[in-house]
Design goal:
The protein has 230 residues and is an alpha+beta fold. Helices cover 40% and strands 25% of the residues.
Length: 230
């Protein structure tokens, strides 16, 4: 996640909350105060809320994405993994206890990545439209997993095998779109996608010598543009 909006009672608190979520230091981000709700005479008892937007600087973001995408320099000790697993389990157990659903989960360490899988008869509602709820939950679990751990925990969440199914759908979309671009010669811009999904599109088209794929825009409205190579 290259950019987030964080809240706090003060500007410093909002910034610190955001830095914890991104798991980076202050020097690695640009900060923009986007909203400050001040107490008026009629709302003197209402808490003050400050919202800030934290954006990871391009150089730092590239390093993070390279580690995530290529599993570079990811070192998570067994001790850190079990601590992260304990953090995640406590949250999920409390979370599912509030639901009247038969939901199961599994947590594994795979090639330096903490993988969390959630399954259940009615667990699909946790996916949301185009995975929006799933990715929001993944970000939350990542922050929880990193609590009290010095090493950076990379976490991937999947629910009801959604990501595997979505990957096939995106690969098919990439090929169909490429065929259309080649036939018509017109550039096509896809809908906004998560970084993980854009990477699937780029990978599916990397061997096609007739077209190019690039990402444009700013998160969370970043899109893939597929065009003919002239």
């Amino acid at each position: 996640m290259a950019s987030i909006i964080s809240e706090g009672k003060t500007t410093n608190e909002a910034i610190e909350n955001g830095l914890k979520q991104l798991n980076v230091s202050k020097k690695d981000v640009t900060i923009k105060i986007i909203e400050e709700e001040k107490r008026s005479f009629f709302s003197i008892l209402a808490p003050k809320v400050v919202k800030v937007e934290l954006t990871i600087k391009e150089e730092k973001n590239k390093k993070i994405q390279n580690k995530i995408d290529h599993h570079e320099e990811i070192k998570l000790s067994e001790e850190d993994f079990y601590k992260a697993k304990e953090n995640i389990s406590k949250f999920i157990e409390k979370f599912i206890s509030k639901l009247n659903e038969d939901i199961k989960y599994d947590i594994k360490l795979n090639n330096g990545i903490v993988e969390v899988r959630i399954n259940g008869k009615n667990a699909g509602f946790l996916i949301g439209y185009r995975g929006e709820t799933l990715y929001a939950m993944q970000n939350l679990l990542t922050a929880i997993a990193n609590k009290g751990i010095e090493a950076r925990v990379i976490l991937r969440l999947d629910i009801e095998n959604y990501k595997c199914k979505r990957e096939k759908t995106l690969e098919d979309l990439a090929r169909r779109t490429a065929d259309t671009v080649i036939k018509t010669g017109k550039t096509i811009t896809l809908e906004p996608m998560q970084a993980y999904e854009r990477k699937i599109i780029h990978n599916a088209l990397q061997d096609n010598k007739k077209i190019s794929s690039d990402s444009i825009g700013v998160e969370p409205r970043r899109r893939v543009v597929i065009s003919l190579i002239k």
